[in-house]
Amino acid sequence: MLRAALPGAWMTTVSSQPTGTVTLVFTDVEGSTRLLQELGPAAYMDALNQHGHAVRGAFAHHGGYEVDNQGDSFFYAFASARGAIDAVGEAVAALAGGPMRVRVGVHTGEPAVDPPKYVGVDVHRAARIMSAAHGGQIVISQSTHDLLTGEVELRDLGEHPLKDFPDRQRLWQAGGGDFPPLRTHRQTQLPPTAWPLLGREREVADLVALMTNGARVVTITGPGGTGKTRLAIDVAHELERRMADGVFWVPLAGLRQADLVLPAIAQAVQPTEGLAEHLRERQAVLALDNFEHVLDARRPVSELLAQAPRLKVLTTSRAALHITGEHVYPLEPLELKSAVTMFVERAAAAGRQLEADGTVAEICLRLDCLPLALELAAARARLLEPESMLGRLERSLAVLTRGSADAPERQQTLRATIEWSHDLLQEEARVLLRRLSVFAGGFSLDAAEQAAGGDLDALEELVDLSLLKARDGGRFLMLETIREFAAERLVESGEEAAVKHAHADFVVELAEAAEPHLRGSGQERWLRAIDDDYDNVRAALGWARDTGEREAAGRICAALGRYWRVRPLTAEGRAWIAASLAAVDELEPATAARLVRAAAHLAALAGDYAEQRVLAEDALARWQAIGDQSAIAAALGDLAVAAMFGGDLDRAADYYERSRAAARAGEDDPVLALVTLNLADLQIIRGDYARARELADESATLSRRLGIGDVAAMSLLNLGLATYFQGDTEAALGCMGEAAEAARALGGDIVSQVLEAQAAARLRLGDAESGALLLGAADALRGVSGSAEQPFYAAMNAETRAGIRAALGGGAEPAFERGRGLELEDALALATV
Predict the structure, then answer these.
(1) Who contacts 37 (Cβ-Cβ below 8 Å, separation ≥6)?
(2) How many whole angstroms separate alpha carbon 541 and alpha carbon 575?
(3) pTM for this prediction
(4) Residue 155 β-bridge partners
(5) Is the N end or the C end of the chain the one with fewer CB atoms within 10 Å?
């Protein structure tokens, strides 16, 4: 355990600025804006003064050198890592129990001294580490860890991306305490790059100048292999430093339908309300990579720009978009000097040291100085002398056996270079390359083995020869130009139908493996697993729809109903399910019943209760025909929900009791927990709050034992609501705070409901300002998910909103608006106070 040092222990006096190896400490108060709103100016200033006294006192006690301070933030330097950690421990302990929770970042390095400050990458690294921490948490770098091993309690937090650092950083937590995941997965996270960009300094400067001097749409055009994507990544990095709200990288290569472009943008942006509303006042850039095959999405992108006047778009495409305000930037091949440098560096990476001589220059010229062609050829330098390579290239490029005769010469050169690299592969690797073309947006080793018959040696050969890119997390990516070439070979092989069927089978198995884990323990891991392969999900669903593979489409949709509910993809999920419902009677009976039930859940989320009731009745009939008692119990529960939302409380009660009986008969505790939860909902609506509390407590106990996280969270919320309506608002807030903690990792409609319930309770306690913030945040979340207010919540929210307006007068609407702009983490932090 990390403890504050005893008085006098490790105490040193620093009369001058430490130099050499220095441990840098950044601190910041978490949620300071929220605290100011909660405490009011006078109380906030008192707390801020106490915070400053505690930090300065502890840090001076351990010999800290104050480099800078800004309001509630401090930057200190220490001559030793142990002194820094002891100082931080003492400061955090002194602030424990107070309103201010300090997050701390610590890094040891050798920053340059610029009295009285420091400069250099170590300063930025320490600041970024602090930004990743939560209030009360001390996060340290690997270099600090190495100086502390065995002296204090340290917890490995794994490797994380930090803004402006190309490599992932291993981070550690000093001291105990459980905290949410580090805030290192930035919404604007850009793709990593393995090599510095060569010979494109002028292009980067041109594009940055265009984007910062008024251009709203810039399209980098050129044939495949000219390096459009690589250039756009570097431009995006430069723009991220200049745009207040960052750059959102949206890869489009994995999409095959233009109507999926806006959902893909929403996935990257993760808006807290509708996409256009979220971006309306933000100064941000959408970087849309590989637009050429979804050009029909030009209109919705143009409309988004019209709705968000500060938004800019950077695209890469083989063809211009031809939308209003577009600046087209044709990308030329590399200059010869840069091409030679690139070839020599890539050859060295392949294990061959070459001189930048005339033969290498001639190779580059034969390859038209196209970056992708250079990379593919350099990967063979380990096996071929430059003279031999040049001879082979002259023979290969002289005869073009595939492709359009009127294709641009550079495009022909690239195709021939890929073909040359392909022909040098072992047969196993050739087969694997063409089969891997069915994947969209990347794939894992397991996926390659299952869907493409992948062999590890063949996969390694493809990576070694730059035909595949290895990515973090054991995933692989095929560049779009190479994927097109490989897809042609797949068609020619006669294997296309079989391999695409195997790809769809992989997606079916992934979705069905995830389905039971998308509720409760393991949910986050399985949600991320689907996220990673969601482009493959879309590709498989599109193929199944186009080829009439109804069973595959139905099984995927039936399994992913919960995923679409939790992620802000309700509308897309309903669209995919609607296509499968058209042929539902042709599906295997259990698949059909699960599909109908998934459709009913999404209809309820959208507020279409009439459709939900029809679908729930259909699902019940199908499960009764099958004779699955657990599924019958769940379907009866769905019908009860439909009746309850429709206002028929007596029928809802009847359905719930039948559902509980069926769940008990089938010994299905998960369904029993859910039905008991919903019965508590019904009792709250009826006004029987004592009975509601009994049922909510029962469902909370059962769902916690089973690890069903969302049911546990909703049960705690119901417990809080019933207590609130009984008049014990303080106790109700305690339950609601627990519900907020339980809902933190779940997302979806439950978070909105927790915030809405808390808003009502805060208003009753006289804190209308916090109530407005919470209700505004809930509104924003509903805008993202597309979920509608249930009738009970709609009525409660209307009453809360009216009360806030009465209390705040003209200040109500601005407060609601501030709430809509809260980050989710800040809203949840307010809900757990």
Answers:
(1) 769, 770, 773
(2) 11
(3) 0.60
(4) 173
(5) N
Digit-coded pLDDT (tens) for 97-134: 889 989 999 999 999 888 888 988 889 889 889 988 88
Name the pairing type of β-strands 22-29 and 102-109.
antiparallel
Average pLDDT over residues 77-105: 93
At position 352, the amino acid (one-letter code) is: R
The better pLDDT of the pair 494, 73 is held by 494
Residue 84 near residue 92, CB atoms below 8 Å? no
Q: CA 362 to CA 824: how far, in whole Å? A: 56
Cis previous bond, 116, omega within 30: yes
Q: Is the pLDDT of residue 401 over 50?
A: no
Rounded Cα gap, residues 291 and 194, in angstroms? 23
- What whole-number distance in Å separates Cα of residue 291 and Cα of residue 736? 45
Tokens of 647: 């206002």
Calpha distance 691→699 (Å, rounded): 12
Residue 534, pLDDT > 90, answer yes
For residue 96, what pLDDT band results from cuts at 50, 70 and 90? Answer: confident
One-letter amino acid at 409 equals E
Residue among 148, 203, 100 at smallest CA distance from 2: 148
Percentage of the chain surpassing pLDDT 90?
44
Q: CA nearest 577: which of 607, 631, 610, 537?
A: 537
C-alpha 532/C-alpha 525 separation (Å) is: 11
**Tokens coding 308:** 């968000």
CA dist., res. 640 & res. 656, Å (int): 6
Residue-wise pLDDT tens digits, 162-214: 766 766 688 999 988 877 667 664 445 688 777 788 889 999 999 999 998 88
The answer to whether 770 and 37 are in contact (CB under 8 A) is yes
Q: What is the mean pLDDT of residues 549-565?
A: 92
Rounded CA-CA distance 828/833 in Å is 9
* Close Cβ partners of 746 (under 8 Å, ≥ 6 residues apart): 523, 566, 709, 710, 713
Question: What is the average pLDDT score of the chain?
Answer: 85
171 forms beta bridges with 141
Indicate the DSSP class of residue 677. H
Q: Residues with Cβ < 8 Å from 194, sequence gap 6 or more?
A: none
Chain-centroid distance of CA 382 in Å reads: 39
Q: Which residues pair with 701 in a beta bridge?
A: none
Q: What is the distance between the alpha carbons of residues 185 and 192, in angstroms, rounded to a whole number?
A: 13
